[in-house]
């Protein structure tokens, strides 16, 4: 029975993954408008960030959409298909769970932020319209 369930869910993923990726492409929002200087500052700040993700994970898609909405150029690292990235995630963050945002602080510390809602909230606080005015 376990084998039947395993293959059922694998088949379901094979069918749903392309649908989810196409839906992501069709529903990704336009990014916010910034001046060239503001965008350059945001791009520089994004160099300290990396998103560990699985391509068709719905929670990862949610974070990628927020990144697109905020106009963020954050490095995306595939922890599903790249064994080196998977190992980095496990050793650095302590578990293989996606999405995970790696935040490299100026003092050399690394912060591993899990959960799509927490990541999106952090991105919004850091790069949203409210952050630009303060």
Automatic annotation (TrEMBL):
Pfam families: Glutaredoxin (PF00462). CDD domains: GST_N_family. PROSITE patterns: GLUTAREDOXIN_2, GST_NTER. InterPro entries: Glutaredoxin, Glutathione_S-Trfase_N, Thioredoxin-like_sf. Residues 47-131 form the GST N-terminal domain. Gene3D superfamilies: Glutaredoxin (3.40.30.10). It comes from the Bacteria. This is Glutaredoxin.
